[in-house]
Amino acid sequence: MTVSTKDSRSSFSRRWNSMNAREARLAWALILPTALIVFGLILFPAVFSVWISFRDVGLKNLNDVFQAPFVGLDNYRAVINDFAFKWQGWQSWGAAVTSIVYSFSATILTMIIGLIASLLLNRPFRARGLARAIFLFPYVAPIVSIAFVWRWILDPRPSGVLNDILMKLSLIELPKAYLATRGLALVLVIIFTAWRYFPFAMLMILARLQAIDNTMYEAADVDGANAWHKFLYITIPELRYVLGSIFLLRLIWTFNKFDDIYLLTGGGFGTNVLPVLTYQFSFGSFNFGKGAANAMILLIILVVFLLIYVSTIMRSAEE
Amino acid sequence: MSLIDHLAQWINWPRFIFSVTLIFFLTSILFPFYWMVSSSFKTYAEIGGRAPVYIPGDLRPEAYLELFDFWNFGANIANSLKVAVPTALIAVILSTLGAYAVARLNFKGKNVMLNGILIVYLFPGILLIIPLFAMVSRIGVSIGFEIQDNLSVLILTYLAQTLPVALYMLANYFRTIPAEIEQAGLIDGCSRVSVIWRVTLPLAVPALISVAIYTFMIAWNEFLYALVFLNSRDLFTMPIKINTIFNDPSPRPHVVMAASTIMTLPVVTLFLALERFLAEGLTAGGVKG
């Protein structure tokens, strides 16, 4: 008995003091603060918000949230039947459809503009470094300043600068309320998103462009290919993977985006998307249960999309 | 005449399309920034006139004076600094430790942990704010005082938002530093900690700076969490204060533009000065925006 205990203890202490074990303990000690903050402030809240979405949580019982009454799927039913959420025909899309239309078209436009910008900057010219830095401005400048500058440019009064320019060019007769017109507002929000986020796509594409083997273009020159053919048959195939990952990342981020639309239109005039609606449920009418349910629906749509993407696009890319 | 000749010789279709596109990009990017800065120097009369004033008559600091005297914007600048500087410093320290472990040491559960940290990065901020808000008020009840209106709550949430990318960027950088350099130090009898301190960190300075600036920028620009967590006007960070001024019943676009200029200038200047390795960091980590 005693011998075996002694034996196992010494083997334990050997393992405890071995090089690998000491290294592993050091590693855990080093990564622990980061892990605690990230899991405590992201993973736990994410699980907790599932819990909240099944409870009746308002301002009154927020301090006592763990005792909040269980209401089953009531919050989900309330969201799905809310006129701000559901599709009610072409006049009123509802936040779910608007979100999907907004994020897909903004992502695609972002990628097209990013591709054009990266092709521009891939050509050598004087002051290319400066141009590249300027191209990044929309992406790094604070969203609050950017959104308010655009609202000021799109000011509905005749003194608004876009109104003034378009009226001087006689493209419009009367001043327009750009961000307060159904349809036009959504289009402008999409253009704004593309304007702000194209530099991300541009940087990723540029990095890939510069890694393309130049001999392929030289071989194409020998074969007498023109610029368009070289673009179509060399550049685009080479960019396939990077374009795929930009699409995925930007789509997720655009779908989750709150600030841009909240600051530009406040979610009015046919631009209400799911993140803004979540904010309105939770911090406008202080129905946190309904807000959490709305956020969960947002997440479910996102996960369903990711599953479809991974199972179709990724598989076809492998083949 | 010779200039036109020269131009006529230089120009061809590809060059023409290239120049036109480049000019289009530059104007549509720079015009909003020009409009922001120039509007901030206009007077109330110029702002409220019947037609827009394209070039302000004079560099009049009227809007800036109103911003600091009436709106007390200095306090908001201080608040933003009080949030962004600690976030950047703590993020650099914590992510250096974590990234070193990820890049150099082997331990069980490393890949699970890494994937976990990266997956949480895809959660929308709006989903997390409701439970965080509830947690903060619940904790406030437990310890007996309100912690909601507190800048350190913001620092913690910004750390949670930025640490995953910071860790990822730094771990990638550490992997580019050859492990042999460190092993040489270990053989010479240095401890692991002193090897990190004397060998690895000095080599990683560019990456550390870009992580610091990236986290600073996120904390400086952040809107949603500050909007939800801050109630008292004395604690407003710049984005929330600008939102308040914008929503004032009497529109004051020139003051909003002055505040926006003050907020944008440091970020854009930092970026222009350090563009070369910041741009790399942006793509390496896929900075969330």
Main sheet attributes: strand count, strand direction, barrel closure of chain B? none
Along the chain, the helix and strand elements of chain B come as HHHHHHHHHHHHHHH
- The separation of the N and C termini of chain B measures 50 Å
CATH class identity of the domain at 85-286 in chain A: Mainly Alpha
Quick summary of this structure?
With 319 residues, chain A is an all-alpha fold. Chain A has 14 helices and no strands.
Sequence-ordered SSE layout with sheet pairings:
The complex is a heterodimer of chains A (319) and B (289).
Chain A: H1 2-17, H2 19-53, H3 74-80, H4 94-122, H5 128-135, H6 137-140, H7 143-153, H8 161-168, H9 184-209, H10 214-222, H11 227-256, H12 259-264, H13 274-284, H14 288-318
Chain B: H1 2-10, H2 13-40, H3 44-47, H4 62-69, H5 73-104, H6 110-119, H7 125-143, H8 151-176, H9 179-187, H10 192-203, H11 205-221, H12 224-229, H13 238-246, H14 253-273, H15 275-285
Helix pairs in contact in B: 2-14, 4-14, 5-8, 5-11, 8-11, 9-10, 11-15, 13-14
Descriptors for this entry?
heterodimer; A: 319 residues; MetI-like fold; disordered N terminus; B: 289 residues; mainly alpha; 76% helix
Walk me through the structure.
The complex is a heterodimer of chains A (319) and B (289). In chain A, 72% of the residues lie in helices and 0% in strands. Chain A has 319 residues and is mainly α. Chain A has helices at 2-17, 19-53, 74-80, 94-122, 128-135, 137-140, 143-153, 161-168, 184-209, 214-222, 227-256, 259-264, 274-284, 288-318. Chain A has a domain at 85-286: MetI-like fold, CATH 1.10.3720. The model of chain A is unreliable at 1-6 (pLDDT under 50). In chain A, α2 crosses α14 (288-318), α3 (74-80) crosses α14 (288-318) and α9 (184-209) crosses α11 (227-256). Chain A contains 14 helices and no strands. Chain B has helices at 2-10, 13-40, 44-47, 62-69, 73-104, 110-119, 125-143, 151-176, 179-187, 192-203, 205-221, 224-229, 238-246, 253-273, 275-285. Chain B is an all-alpha fold. Chain B is 76% helix and 0% strand. Classes of the chains: A mainly alpha (319), B mainly alpha (289). Chains A and B meet through α2, α4, α5, α6 and α7 of A and α2, α5, α6, α7 and α8 of B.
